[in-house]
Specification:
This protein has 312 residues and is α/β, with parallel strands linked by helices. It has ten helices and nine strands. It has helices at residues 17-30, 49-59, 74-84, 104-112, 131-147, 164-171, 180-187, 210-224, 227-257, 264-296, and strands at 3-10, 35-42, 63-68, 89-92, 118-123, 156-163, 191-196, 304-307, 310-311. The protein has a nine-stranded mixed beta sheet with strand order 7-5-6-4-1-2-3-8-9, with helices on both faces. Strand 1, helix 1 (17-30) and strand 2 (35-42) form a beta-alpha-beta unit. Helix 5 packs parallel to helix 8. The longest helix is centred in the last third of the chain and has 33 residues, at 264-296. The structure holds uridine-5'-diphosphate and magnesium ion (MG). Residues 9-11, 13, 43, 71, 73-74, 77, 94-96, 98, 201, 206-208 line the site of uridine-5'-diphosphate. Magnesium ion is lined by residues 94, 96, 98, 201, 206.
Length: 312
Amino acid sequence: MPKISIVVPCYNEQAALPLFYQEITRVASEMDYAEFEFVFIDDGSKDDTLPTLRRLAAQDVRVRFVSFSRNFGKEAGMLAGLEAATGDFVATMDADLQDPPALLPELYKAVTEEGYDCAATRRTTRAGEPPIRSFFARMFYKLINRISDADIVDGARDYRLMRRVMVDAILSMHEYNRFSKGIFGWVGFKTKWVPFVNVERVAGETKWSFWKLFLYSLEGIVAFSTAPLALASVLGVLLCIVAFIFIAVVLVKTLAFGDPVGGWPSMMCVILFLGGVQLLCIGISGQYLAKTYLETKHRPVYLVRETEEGVR
Ligand code: UDP
Ligand code: MG
């Protein structure tokens, strides 16, 4: 029988986990043509997520878990889950039931019968989200698709079912700064997009603030595009051209009309503008340098403290 691994990153999900487990086991029992394995990742939760996982693992052999030594973030959780998963097919989904497990049979059909390597979900509406957040999200997707060669779909969730080849492709990307929306897009493979209507989380609260999302989007841009560096160079070239023209104008003005002192306001404008542009460009290079610095350290993406087999 084919085996499906369900990878679920959890951070402070004690309230949602029992509901999630109930729902996923219900769906699993309906899909009796496949074998299941549930891989939960406790991402350094501060509530009773870990004891809940221990309890679930004790009563159900299909439940496995990996518990981190601290909070490493959802990206690290997904990586740990994909590494631990042993299935022929691997699905990633959130613990809060915002990714409905009931879609699994449809996703499974796409990868087994319709010839796709991956079936991924995207939400059709951004209803219920603050308009300003939707606006920035749209801008982000437009921008990143223009400046990077990874195909990143607007509204794509991290809820997807992949064949083993694609999972192995993702695991072959050893970068430390993991931006999974970009990684999924970068590896390619044939992906079917399954739309569904957005639902609220069942319990607990979201871990993402607007500011966190904003910083995360910048990470995505730095991780999957070098366009900002090109922008810095282009700005430099443009300003040089402007400067040459300006020098010519000033020279002619001074030599022909003899007015060496005037023009203090325009000089201040130029100095301030150039100062700003220089700082911006240094900042952009700095971002890339910082990421390169972190990559060269080759630190592990996460550290495991405990699994279903016991404390390490
Ligand atoms: N999550 C995680 N580590 C974190 C933050 C979140 O593993 O540091 C998990 C969380 O438990 C959930 C999923 O990532 O299963 C998505 O988080 P959340 O529901 O807060 O995000 P949203 O759905 O609001 O985008
Ligand atoms: Mg959620």
